[in-house]
Give the backbone structure.
Amino acid sequence: MEFKFVVTEKDFVDFNVFYAQNFKFVQKQKKIFRFIFALLPVLVILIFLPIESIFSNIYLSTFFIALSLILSISIFRFYPKFDNSAIESTIYKILKERKHDFPFEMTISFEDDKIISTKKFENVSMGYEKN
């Protein structure tokens, strides 16, 4: 049995973004950074509000507290989308630096005792055991 398909640059980037989204270490890291970045504006306001003389002005202190809460909620809500676009742009930069030839045709053949993967002039065969 033989499969032939064309791999484009977009396919390659989509695969890497999908892999990054579903890798457990990356998911855990995203959760941690999401909470850290969301709490950062609130912590900054709580630290610097009493130091400055803003605390004596109730309207100004309420404004800064509300602003930090809105900023924290926005960061919490939009961080995953921003992170995925950052991963995607990084992959595009890497591809441009290495000058890969896209699109390319790839063939995968299944034989009795091996799997053969062919990309242009590259021929890689991997053995597997039958069950």
User: Anything to note?
Assistant: Strands lie at 2-7, 104-110, 114-119, 122-127.
